[in-house]
Amino acid sequence: MTENVLEGQKPASNEPVLSVKNLKAGYGKVEIIKGVSFEVAAKEIRVILGGSGSGKSTILRNVLGLEIPWSGEIKVLGQNLSIGSPQAQKALSHLGVLFQGGALVTSLTVGQNVMLPLVLDGIEPKGAAEELARSRLAQVRMSQAWSLFPGELSGGMRKRASLARALVREPKLLFCDEPSAGLDPLTSRELDELLLELHESLGLSIVLVSHELDSIRTLAQKILYLQEGTVLFDGTLKDALESGPDRVRAFFERRTDPANALVPTPWETIT
């Protein structure tokens, strides 16, 4: 079993697992995120929505430490990432990430892919690492695929193998970037149900970026809707559907509102 991320420095029980305050971020001289603030509570499923260029991926990249924020504060599991302390880095290393394309290493078997984060942590690929990897594969119903290579898997199987790898360090916070992308409706539904099952059984908090309305309605407890790098709506799915801004309701109703349409921006492809 992996060590508790914040052993000896546990956040208060009511402290959010993720806190973003007045985050500003961008690329080069182009500001993408313009003072965004939100929180994710323990065991909450939060979905981040917004059009192309709104900043969804930029927020994820900054929270995951792939980019350096221009300003603001990001706390993960009670640790301020901007400080750069060993505790902050440890918290960051224990986040789970399910990438859009799965990001499996094609030259490694499924079992080796799932063990990879533990091996990189210095844990021998036999013994504890293999035991934990096999247990995660069993949880996503992929035990039979241990010796297979990614090229031998269907799209849904690759997503589940990637999910097992994302969970192998026993994270409390799981990030999912468009998990249903490229899946047929039935497989997408099965993945949604699996995420709900793992959320309940493992006590996971989940941050999900998705455009799939069925998945959002199935999974979301709270949503964050971004527009041009700012927060247009932050609240429950119920409130978004019943009394949210017209643009948010238009998103769920699949209708176009020319008055609220976003002007395409030159940085859409990088956000």
Strand order in space, largest sheet: 6-7-8-3-9-10
Report the helical percentage: 25-40%
Global morphology: globular
Structural domain count = 2
* Secondary structural class: alpha/beta
Largest sheet: 6 strands, mixed
How does CATH name the architecture of the largest domain? 3-Layer(aba) Sandwich
CATH homologous superfamily descriptor of the largest domain: P-loop containing nucleotide triphosphate hydrolases
Mean pLDDT: 84
Report the portion of residues in β strands: 15-25%
**Low-confidence parts lasting 5 or more residues at pLDDT below 50?**
1-11, 260-271
Task: Name the CATH class of the largest domain.
Answer: Alpha Beta
- CATH fold node name of the largest domain: Rossmann fold
β-strand number? 10
Summarize the helices and strands and which ones pair or pack.
Elements: E1 18-27, E2 30-40, E3 45-50, H1 56-63, E4 71-76, E5 79-80, H2 86-93, E6 96-98, H3 110-120, H4 128-139, H5 155-167, E7 173-177, H6 185-202, E8 205-209, H7 213-219, E9 222-227, E10 230-236, H8 237-243, H9 246-253
Parallel strand pairs: 3-8, 3-9, 6-7, 7-8
Antiparallel strand pairs: 1-2, 1-4, 4-5, 9-10
Helix pairs in contact: 3-4, 3-5, 4-5, 6-7, 8-9
Summarize the structure.
This protein is an alpha/beta fold and 271 residues long. Helix content is 34%, strand content 23%. The two termini are 36 Å apart.
Protein architecture, described:
- This protein is of the alpha/beta class.
- The chain folds into 2 domains: about 200 residues, Rossmann fold, CATH 3.40.50; about 70 residues, no CATH class.
- About 35% of the residues lie in helices and about 25% in strands.
- It contains 9 helices and 10 strands.
- The chain has a 6-stranded mixed β-sheet.
- A hairpin with a 2-residue loop joins strand 9 and strand 10.
- Helix 3 runs parallel beside helix 5.
- The longest helix is centred in the last third of the chain and has 18 residues.
- The two termini are about 35 Å apart.
- About 40% of the residues are buried.
- The N terminus and C terminus are likely disordered.
